[in-house]
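Hello support,

Our group uses your service weekly, and this is the first time we've seen a run hang past the timeout. The protein is DNA topoisomerase (ATP-hydrolyzing). I'm not sure whether the cause is the sequence or the server load. Input pasted verbatim:
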Amino acid sequence: MHDSSTRDDLYKSLLPSTRTVHMNAHDKDISGTIDTILSLTKNSIEQHQQPVNIQIKTQNKSFMSLKFPAHGLYSTVAAYNNSNRVAIMISLLHMIQKCITSNTIKTNRDVFYSNVELYGKQVTVDRWLNIISQGFELTNARDSLNVIPAQKGLVFTTQEIKVLTNGIEERINPFHSSLIPHMKQDSQCQILRERSGTTRLLVLEKEAVYNQFVNNMQPNSHSYDNFIIITGKGYPDFLTRLFLHKLQDSEIAIDYWEMYTDADPYGIDIAMKYVENSKEAYTCNKLVHRGVFLFQLMLNHQTQVQYLPMTQRDTVFATRILQRLTEPTGSNTTTIQELRRQIFLQKKAEMNVMSRENYLEQK
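Update from on-call engineer: The timeout came from a worker crash unrelated to the input. Re-ran successfully.
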């Protein structure tokens, strides 16, 4: 107290010295880098009784600080939040290290169910894996960490599709519904044309509508169209978007790229995740959102359509999307008109009300 003339000086003099651990870009061996981070953290806390501050470089080049244990002013408020974040980070780093050293692969769903109490939600695992990959400045994050996305999306095709990954060939058989296979950033997709005619690619939000199409597709059909039908079962996962991205580079061109979602704000948001998701490089620029829109249902005089009322939450969500779309960057005019129509009429509808024939007539 003799050396501290102010309360602030006294507070700073009483703070314990903290060891800072940087999560920097790795050289070649990610496992060795992780081992260094874990060892420094463990030794600082266990042997030196010294708080640790893990600094992680984020996407915008700023730093995220994970401090443990919490100390100083308001430490009781931050204690749980900081300790939980540090526990999640250490747990994921340890799991990644084990996967790399044992040359095993896990899905993000496997990781989540390995400690549900800690992670709480699967989105927590996905978010922190992204943070770790950004801290290591990985270009092929999902390939380098030995943690791959769980399979979710479905694909049905009338033509065989070959997927080549690391020299291993996997084929998607025609006239069978299949899970979209695991792929990497350098994977290749090749459509093996067996029938003449144009090729239409349909992306459907709902699995029920997807099944409606698939159940009516027969190998002996005399339709002049070849179909590739895909569903992400709601919001698209990484593998579904990567698969669509790779199909754009196929030697055999796909003539029509169509996407259909519910006539509500969430359907619009799902469509934007496929086409305009700026956070990921795996977008499908050829996809066109063709519906389902309210004006299509009204023009087609769908008497069986049951329009649902927009809730307050729906309206707020639609307004936020509309504000984002009407920024000076330029946006899809049809999408903006649809959102305004939903907000004005306070109505929404599900895509299930349209029959299979109605979708096919949209071409």
